[in-house]
Write a structure and sequence with these properties.
Blueprint lengths: L4 H22 L3 H5 L1 H18 L1 H4 L7 H15 L11 H4 L7 H17 L4 H12 L2 H4 L3
């Protein structure tokens, strides 16, 4: 099934508010509910393999240090989900400056992220929260 990224992102944003309430009540952050850094790293590994194999997107990674990119991505997700990691990469607009990433390319990337989360059977609630975080970066990534 092909996901409509905007629908999933919208649902995820709405669920994010409910999830924050649940996290406070349960005492577990999204980071903990995802399974911590090891689980995030596994998703990033799966995501990066399909992302880099996609000819529609791979051109943007020609001069990228892939190991460093993956490390920054793990730290970004870890930090954004309430984990102990500190993101030390460049701010999103600066990191994507002059790459001319289109909305379609951003959406294709989202599809790879969703597929990686689904591969590891991340529950829909947590998946949608991660996708909502990703969606919040769209303006900083596209059109730079």
């Amino acid at each position: 099934m092909r996901w409509n990224f905007l629908v999933v992102a919208s649902i995820g944003l709405l669920l994010g508010l409910a999830a924050q309430t649940t996290a406070v009540a349960s005492g577990k952050s999204l980071y903990d509910r995802l399974g911590g850094k090891a689980a995030i790293t596994a998703v990033v590994d799966k995501f990066s393999k399909t992302q880099l194999a996609d000819a529609r997107i791979a051109k943007h990674y020609k001069s990228t240090d892939i190991a460093a990119w993956k490390g920054h991505l793990v730290d970004l997700i870890c930090n954004a989900t309430g984990g102990p990691c500190k993101y030390t990469g460049r701010p999103m607009p600066k990191a994507h400056a002059r790459r001319n990433i289109s909305s379609d390319e951003f959406n294709w990337t989202a599809e790879h992220l969703i597929a990686a989360l689904n591969h590891f059977k991340v529950p829909a609630k947590e998946r949608d929260e991660v996708v909502a975080i990703f969606a919040s970066l769209k303006d900083d990534v596209t059109g730079q």
